[in-house]
Amino acid sequence: MVLSNKKLKQKLRTLLAESVEAAESGKPAQDAAAAEGVQQELQSLKELLSSKTHRSSRPTRRGGKRKKSSSLEEPTNAEAGVVNPEDGGEIAAPSDSNKDKKKKKKKEKRQKAIPSSPMATLADGAGAAALHPKAAASHSFAVRSALAPRSLSVYASSSSSVSPGSAQSGSSSPSSAWSVDSWKSRRALQIPAYPDRTALESVLSTLEAYPPLVFAGEARKLEERLADAAVGKAFLLQGGDCAESFKEFNANNIRDTFRVILQMAVVLTFGGQMPIIKVGRMAGQFAKPRSDPFETKDGVKLPSYQGDNINGDVFDEKSRMPDPQRLLRAYSQAAGTLNLLRAFATGGYAAIQRVTQWNLDFLKHSEQGDRYMELAQRVDEAIGFMAAAGLTPEHPIMTTTEFWTSHECLHLPYEQALTREDSTSGLHYDCSAHMLWVGERTRQLDGAHVEFLRGVANPLGIKVSDKMNPSELVKLCEILNPHNRPGRLTIITRMGAENMRVKLPHLIRAVRNAGLIVTWISDPMHGNTMKAPCGLKTRSFDAIRSELRAFFDVHEKEGSHPAGVHLEMTGQNVTECIGGSNTVTFDDLNSRYHTHCDPRLNASQSLELAFAIAERLRRRRIKLWGKSVFKLPEGAVL
Questions:
Q1: Which residues carry a binding-site annotation for phosphoenolpyruvate?
Q2: Where is the composition biased (Basic residues) (predicted)?
Q3: Fewest Cβ atoms nearer than 10 Å: which of 30, 199, 312, 503?
């Protein structure tokens, strides 16, 4: 029995929906008998629509000839049999002309060979998609490719440049509306309990009226750079304090950390022969997540220290009580730090001609200092050659550097207060930093932190340990980056060397199979924290280097890009991590242990690690692209 035209259309829409569902689930959409019946119904529908269109499309003669269409015109959707999404998925029947059967057959043959759009074969292929799961899968992909929103018209392969462009917000979720305070409807972990809510609201209102610390255009530029890193065209160097403190806030400490990052970037640029994206854990990295909200000493139970922007580290009731006024001080310190960093980056201090002057005093006569000076002399000679050849070294690219800031998105009331709508794009940016990341303890799919971050357009990071399930990572990426914008997401792996070799391959494959574009970087610090015999927390330099080695090994085997490193480090001559060429032992820890939270690499250890990474990048480059005339000074490698 042939159904009515209306019912057949409804049946076909149901069939298409089942095809898509079956393709995604891997189950056949119909059994053979049902599919055969649908095929007959589909054929009847096509004949019916064709005859109706033929009758309605006959031209009126009224004393003149029928107007011929130009042979250069594109066939309309009705001629090509294309589903128009704006028409509710109805199939437009092909027009029929008795004047030239041969031309019609040729046109149909061309349309089958080269569809005018991914949807052009939908009408003829619907029955096949219902019969065969593989055909249904490709049919489903065509449907989604045609209808899914995209921030890029074309995403270049690794052999071409990548630019996110001026995309619309890739952070909104189709499932629910987002607003700057929609996170309040979700469960929020690690949020301090302020005893005086009125005082907190007053401070937040003040922060909302303050100027932004960073600008949307700067965050967009960072996203473009990270998109290059995702395809192996750049390398991310992200480093700074575990937690910034009010006590250590001074110009010298900021300068020294910035200077070590510049030194490391020179080494990595020389070894990798690629741009180094410099991002500091600075100008906002105050709050720290805690495994226990309370700390007990000698029978006294007080709130845990959560960072200088929340409470104090002194173990007494007054210090440990969350104080909203600390948020204003944190904003002020972040603004001062950013002001100094901008001056260093663009005021001449970061000029490559000063490469030999960046060495810290306590490094000058050390092994790492000597290796750096040897490399700096080569760079200096290259600059001299450029000047002699008439290439001016005074170009801004030689006298300035790009530098961005980042921190963990933890204190959501503070982050909300500094979120602004960009007047250029209409998107919301968290203007407390250029880049934000969600931590291991706050990355729940239905949690408040993920809800907040999905709506801001900043580049985002996801801290991932060995506890992360591959399917969960894919879901998290899809929530935070539904439009798959290159450079939007950076996955920061932290799991220890042995776990890295076992767990990371599964995560890489899951993300790749889902077609997601991410930037993979390694945090070799957090998976290697231990307690020294003296009771202090420390990290082993050898364990850190082993995890980085595993990170590079896994990516080489998987054919993916090791795109960066995330370090807790300082420009100070501290003794917090054991090991390195200037061997720091357990006995040395107490001499210069200044951290307020987790142990950091000192300047010498940071530079030594940079040389090891640079040599690994150099070998990878030679393996991929051929021999290189550049060699790094001898030393340890990954």
A1: 281, 440-441, 463, 494
A2: 52-69, 100-112
A3: 199
